[in-house]
Amino acid sequence: MDTAASPDLFEAESRALQAARTAYDTCATSATSATNEPAPCRQALGDLLGAYERLLRETRRLVRRSDRAELEMNQLNLRLQDLAAELEYRATHDPLTGVLNRAAIIELVNRHFVRNDLALIVLDIDHFKRINDSFGHPTGDRVIQGVVTCLKDEVPAAAQIGRVGGEEFTVVLPGQGGDACRQVAHALRHAIEAYAFELPDGSSVTASFGVSWMPCGSSFDDAYGLADEALYVAKRGGRNQVALASGPVHAQSA
């Protein structure tokens, strides 16, 4: 802290000290004793001035130290807040893709169901094991990141994306009905199919989708279970498809 630019907290004390010093300096020399020593009252005033000056210097030093400590404490508090936010982010997000992890998605869905209907899209990258086995896990990771890019580009603003398994993702659509979530799922399917993943053999990447819709008061397990069943319908039907769950929304595979 720049104390020169700061108000003097002890301005009044400094003025009083200066006045006392002036009085001491101008004290008549005739007040000295026969031994040429200062008179007792002048001696006492001198001692008091010296003690007060030392006290004021020490107080200023302690205030400067306190200001530095407060500044350091504020900086530490800001750092702790940053670290807390970073830890919370790491606890709730997938490190590879930056989307929500499974635990965070479960909490999010259950929280939404307290007050909203909710649509849940579950998608799985088709033949992902072949990609990993043929081209290695780094290529597989890039495919996963590319799929997340497609999802982020297409989902509505209110949607949340989560990675719930190695190559399995969810899209949470609060307050959405069956038709709306089906349209979103089809847009995601087309986006992934058209994306340039640049695999070594030039092949494309596709994904299969299961969609469920559940009313307010439901749970993640209910919504996910129905969407997962629909996903396997899409897989058995030839992959690269969207299937709607036969639950609160009744529709057929697309």
Automatic annotation (TrEMBL):
SMART domains: GGDEF (SM00267). Transmembrane segments: none annotated. The gene is dosC_2. GO terms for cellular component: plasma membrane. GO terms for biological process: cell adhesion involved in single-species biofilm formation; negative regulation of bacterial-type flagellum-dependent cell motility. This is diguanylate cyclase. Keywords: Coiled coil, Nucleotidyltransferase, Transferase. PROSITE patterns: GGDEF (PS50887). It comes from Variovorax paradoxus. Its EC number is 2.7.7.65. It catalyses: 2 GTP = 3',3'-c-di-GMP + 2 diphosphate. InterPro entries: Diguanylate_Cyclase, GGDEF_dom, Nucleotide_cyclase, Rev_trsase/Diguanyl_cyclase. PANTHER family: DIGUANYLATE CYCLASE DGCM-RELATED (PTHR45138:SF9), REGULATORY COMPONENTS OF SENSORY TRANSDUCTION SYSTEM (PTHR45138). One of its GO terms (molecular function) is diguanylate cyclase activity.
